[in-house]
Amino acid sequence: MSKNKRVTFLFKLLLLAYLGFLFILTLLPDATNITYETTFNLVPLTTIDNFFYDIVVNGFINWEFLATQPTDPTEIVLYTFTDSFKNLAGNIILFMPLGLLYPLSRKIKVNFFHAFMVILGTTCTIELIQYLFLASRRADIDDIILNLIGGLIGYLIYKWIE
Asked: Is the Cα torsion angle 38, 128, 84, 136 positive or negative in sign?
């Protein structure tokens, strides 16, 4: 196996591990949030606008939590930022590895349109599965928008290092 084939193989393994992580994070039921009714948002930018409003009003740092002077590192990671900020940033950051690892794992050159379609297809599939099968998840067009932004940022990082 030549060096290029080994590197491509390594990126394929990383992509597979990332997709497993993505599956666990987005498609396993959340036992703490079961509603038993289908929830979804098909109006673009509604949720994003609500999150931005919340961040403008309350900020992105949870000062009330920090005022308790937490010492547990897990709690500090989980509760330092507001839920709105974590949702916006998390949806973007979650798909950045897909935009980066997918082109790196391919032997052929991946153009912008190809990467766009793979990222869009992946996020739409996740949201559709959440809508159809998971009572504990909320399908949201804004998640698709944020995931697509994150994936394209990852692709732009790929183009920058290429």
From this structure: positive
- CB burial of residue 91 (10 Å; 0-12, 13-18, 19+): buried
Average pLDDT over residues 108-125: 97
Q: Where are the alpha helices (DSSP H) in the chain?
A: 3-27, 46-58, 63-67, 73-79, 83-104, 112-133, 141-161
* Tokens at 28, concatenated: 């396993």
pLDDT digits (tens, 9 = 90+) for 74-109: 999 989 999 999 999 999 999 999 999 999 999 899
Closest among 84, 23, 89 to 50, alpha carbons compared: 84
Cβ–Cβ under 8 Å, residues 137 and 30: yes
Q: What is the pTM of this model?
A: 0.91
With contact defined as beta carbons under 8 Å apart, do 139 and 27 qualify? no
Separation between Cα atoms, residue 15 and residue 8, nearest integer Å? 10
- Kindly indicate the confidence band of residue 162, based on its pLDDT and cuts at 50, 70 and 90: confident
Structure letter (DSSP) for residue 81: B
Three-class secondary structure of residue 162 per DSSP: coil
Is the pLDDT confidence value at 1 over 80?
no
